[in-house]
Amino acid sequence: MHIEQSARDGCIVLTLTGDLDVAAAPLVQRALLRCLAKQPDAVICDLSGAAAIDPVCTTVFSAVAHRPRSRWPHSNILLCAARPAVAAVLLRQGMPRLPPICDTLDQAVAQAHSRPPFLRERLRLVPTLDAIATARWFVADVCQRWQLDALTETAQPLAGELVTDAVLAEPNGVDLIELRLELRAAGLLVAVQSGDPPPASADAEEDPDDNPRPGSGLDMIQRTTPAWGVRRQTDGSRVVWGILRRSRAQCA
């Protein structure tokens, strides 16, 4: 299996050539995870060069797309241009969580950009204790502007705890901390990115055991958000995120 990576309109395209068999499945999985860590609009698997697929390997796409706790929210995986024999094997598995299969690459790119628009605000902080209060103020201000007053009481302390972790928990120090707020259909995303990159030779993968210390922001994010995750980016930084659900009245 040969995997070629390219960029297209904010998406990463992985062109798979050859047979997707048991030996190739781990290679495809690692490539997907590395691409998702870059937070593109979508990762599109171009299957036009895939001659055959082992039914056992059909779950590799859905397993990565729906990987609990470690995936970055709203990162799409789409499949496109599958040959009839390959498409038949994928569809025959009847996997309800199979990523969408588009006829062409153009259709996949269009679908990746068809998601509802969302609001986004970012704040970069110097890792000092003053950053904690600044983060709380920032969240309150953004929630007020986005008319999310009902979420302020939860979002403020959550952001404060996550920033506290970033300030205190990194043994080697952090140059900058990024606090990100995004308003999407699923709710309010609160995320903090921090951490120093490892040596260039290190190939960072997400580590489900790479969590902040007990009793920290991770503990709070588990208690207050129905969807959350921790992931290591390819540059070695860490993102801790959670989504606070809005009520139906807020979504109207």
Describe this structure in words.
- By secondary structure, the protein is α/β, with parallel strands linked by helices.
- Helices cover 33% and strands 29% of the residues.
- It contains eight helices and ten strands.
- The chain has helices at residues 25-36, 59-65, 84-92, 105-112, 130-145, 149-168, 217-224, 248-251, and strands at 2-8, 11-20, 42-53, 76-80, 101-102, 119-125, 177-184, 187-194, 227-232, 238-244.
- Helix 1 links the parallel strand 2 and strand 3.
- Helix 5 (130-145) packs antiparallel against helix 6 and helix 6 (149-168) packs antiparallel against helix 7.
- It is elongated, with a radius of gyration of 20 Å.
Largest sheet: 5 strands, mixed
H/E element sequence:
EEHEHEHEHEHHEEHEEH
Number of continuous helical runs: 8
Question: What is the typical, i.e. mean, pLDDT?
Answer: 80
Quaternary organization: single chain
Helix content: 25-40%
Structural class computed from helices and strand pairing: alpha/beta
Strand content: 25-35%
The rounded Rg comes to 20 Å
Strand arrangement in the largest pleated sheet: 1-2-3-4-5
- Principal-axis shape equals elongated
Please write out the topology.
Elements: E1 2-8, E2 11-20, H1 25-36, E3 42-53, H2 59-65, E4 76-80, H3 84-92, E5 101-102, H4 105-112, E6 119-125, H5 130-145, H6 149-168, E7 177-184, E8 187-194, H7 217-224, E9 227-232, E10 238-244, H8 248-251
Parallel strand pairs: 2-3, 3-4, 4-5
Antiparallel strand pairs: 1-2, 6-7, 7-8, 8-10, 9-10
Helix pairs in contact: 5-6, 6-7
